[in-house]
Specification:
Keywords: NAD. InterPro entries: Gfo/Idh/MocA-like_OxRdtase_N, Gfo/Idh/MocA_oxidoreduct, GFO_IDH_MocA-like_dom, NAD(P)-bd_dom_sf. It comes from Curtobacterium herbarum. Pfam families: GFO_IDH_MocA, GFO_IDH_MocA_C3. This is Gfo/Idh/MocA family oxidoreductase. This protein has 413 residues and is an alpha/beta fold. The chain is 27% helix and 22% strand. It has eleven helices and 15 strands. The strands form two sheets. A nine-stranded mixed beta sheet has the order 14-13-12-11-7-10-9-8-15, covered by helices on one side. Helix 3 runs antiparallel to helix 10, helix 3 crosses helix 11 and helix 8 crosses helix 10. It is globular, with a radius of gyration of 21 Å. It starts with 7 loop residues before the first strand and ends in a 14-residue tail after the last helix.
């Protein structure tokens, strides 16, 4: 992959919906200080409303009706050097594969795909073509995760043996049950769209990927809400309000609602660490709580953005809300703009200068595998399911990229 001789890195955006705003970080990534002009030159969306949003957001960009219009044909060069793909989840694999085969570097919004099979197809294509692939697991760059990883790396809680995650998705009714996210044919499960962040972080904190998974869950509240309508021409910001409460009185849900609104996952990781993840979409509060237990103590976050705290207990005692050590969480106090900027900067620098990234696509696949197979388990009597290995050639390809501190030493069993 090489950029044009004028040192301009031409970037396209595919899918102009709620998450496409991350492309605004291209200009803020600071590559110009190193002599590279990274700019949005094209935007693609299959809907008229999406193309209108693209024209408003990037008036100097060429707006086209699909990702294939970015790919050169009949000997013509590609329109872009790199593409930021923020389309709905079920389209990720097809679009990424087309772009990778055309030699266009891909920033693919998480999740990598909605099935293990599609995730493997994307990684195999990246390995076969050698085209750069980056998956936007921005939560890796959040201040709370970086802080927890630092505490573990310093040995403050000893060797990690267990990780527990409770995810209170207080905005779940607005975020996930009023559009395509509520339809399992489009999203498979919210253990992918929503939980892939946390499953990836579990792997990062524990230093290994999931090898066996069990899932449980149900559609406990939103399936009983009968007020439904098509919102395909709207974005989440058009209907979101904290006044949309209580959950059973939500209105305007997606016509199809068949994904679980409460779910639980139990995991055995390749290094023997035991982990669990719980997700609920009808809580009043919205945050995630990690507990990491090691051989010499444990850590826990209270709050997951700026203003929160990570507490460490490493002396024996009875119940005590105060930790032996408490570390303030820096970063933004709401949302994840800081993590988005770091993620986009990392992608662009990897394309422009070949710099290493802190997330391997193999790790993104591991998050998909844990979520997709947990979903298969919970819908089939909570049977345990083992995670299949990637092909050796694909593992070798990604193992030859620069060292990353998040990739476990052992990726096959």
């Amino acid at each position: 992959m090489s950029i044009t001789s004028t040192r301009t890195l031409r970037v396209g955006v595919v899918g102009i919906g709620q998450r496409s705003y991350i492309a605004n970080h291209v200009a803020a990534a600071g590559l110009d200080a190193d002599g590279v002009d990274a700019r949005i030159v094209a935007a693609a969306d299959v809907t008229a409303s999406g193309r209108e949003r693209a024209a408003d957001a990037w008036p100097d960009a060429t707006v086209v009706d699909g990702h294939r219009a970015l790919i050169g044909t009949d000997g013509a060069p590609n329109t872009v050097d790199a593409a930021i793909v923020t389309t709905p989840d079920w389209t990720h694999a097809e679009i990424a594969i087309d772009l990778l085969r055309a030699g266009i570097a891909v920033y693919l919004e998480k999740p990598l795909a909605i099935t293990v099979e599609d995730a493997d197809a994307v990684l195999n294509t990246a390995a076969e073509t050698g085209t750069p692939l980056y998956v936007g697991h921005n939560f890796r760059h959040s201040a709370v995760v970086r802080l927890m990883r630092d505490v573990i790396a310093r040995g403050e809680i000893g060797a990690v043996k267990a990780v527990w995650v409770r995810h209170f998705v207080g905005n779940g009714g607005d975020y996930y049950f009023k559009d395509w996210h509520a339809d399992r044919s489009r999203v498979n499960s919210l253990l992918l769209q929503k939980a892939s962040h946390d499953l990836d972080v579990v792997h990062a904190l524990a230093g290994a990927y999931t090898s066996r998974v069990v899932g449980m869950g149900s559609l406990s509240v939103y399936g009983d809400v009968t007020d439904r309508r098509d919102r395909s021409d709207e974005l989440m910001t058009d209907w979101f309000s904290f006044d949309n409460w209580p959950p059973a009185e939500q209105t305007g849900l997606n016509p199809v609602v068949d994904v679980e609104d409460v779910s639980m996952v139990m995991m055995t990781l390749e290094n023997g660490v035991q982990a669990s993840y719980e997700q609920c979409h009808f809580t009043p509060d919205y945050w995630r709580n990690y507990t990491v237990i090691g051989t010499h103590g444990r850590l826990e976050n209270i709050g997951d953005t700026g203003g929160g705290v990570v507490k460490v207990w490493n002396h024996r005692r009875n119940w005590d809300v105060a930790g032996d050590v408490e570390y303030p969480i820096d970063g933004v106090e709401d949302g994840h703009d800081d993590a988005d900027l770091l993620t986009m900067t990392e992608f662009l620098r990897s394309v422009a200068f070949g710099e290493p990234t802190t997330l391997s696509p193999v790790a993104a696949r591991a998050a998909v595998a844990a979520g997709a197979l947990a979903t298969r388990s919970l819908r089939n009597g909570s049977v345990p399911i083992d995670v299949p290995p990637l092909p050796e050639a694909t593992l070798r390809h990604f193992a030859t990229t620069p060292d990353r501190d998040d990739v476990p030493e052992r990726t096959t069993r």
